[in-house]
Amino acid sequence: xxxxxxxxxxxxxxxxxxxxxxxxxxxxxxxxxxxxxxxxxxxxxxxxxxxxxxxxxxxxxxxxxxxxxxxxxxxxxxxxxxxxxxxxxxxxxxxxxxxxxxxxxxxxxxxxxxxxxxxxxxxxxxxxxxxxxxxxx
Length: 137
What we know:
The protein is an alpha/beta fold. The protein has a single domain, classed as Rossmann fold (3-Layer(aba) Sandwich). 38% of the residues lie in helices and 19% in strands. It is built from 4 helices and 6 strands. Strands 4-3-2-1-5-6 form a 6-stranded parallel β-sheet, sandwiched between helices. Strand 1, helix 1 (16-30) and strand 2 form a beta-alpha-beta unit. Helix 1 (16-30) packs across helix 2 (41-54). The longest helix is centred in the N-terminal third of the chain and has 15 residues, at 16-30.
């Protein structure tokens, strides 16, 4: 079972514990074992931090930072660059990457507090595709 994440770039650190509890429950109760996260903003950094921490307790999980475009510096550990993205104009790369992550996923964990912005847009796309949405509040 695969999970991906979308959240506002300015997500507060106070949601970290709920995020950790949600990911842990997905692993222990729902069988999630693969996780995809982007690399833009506080929410993505928080998710990655939690996944690194949780992977010491649940070594069977796999997690990847999915790049929309290759960064100048990267150690390439736990990273992925979706096939086909290299043909996409840079201004559409994040949208391509996010839709790719949705397509791969069974669950989508979000931190969406208002209806504008990318997090809300991709939550809505995932919902329309029948993905199970879990929103951190």
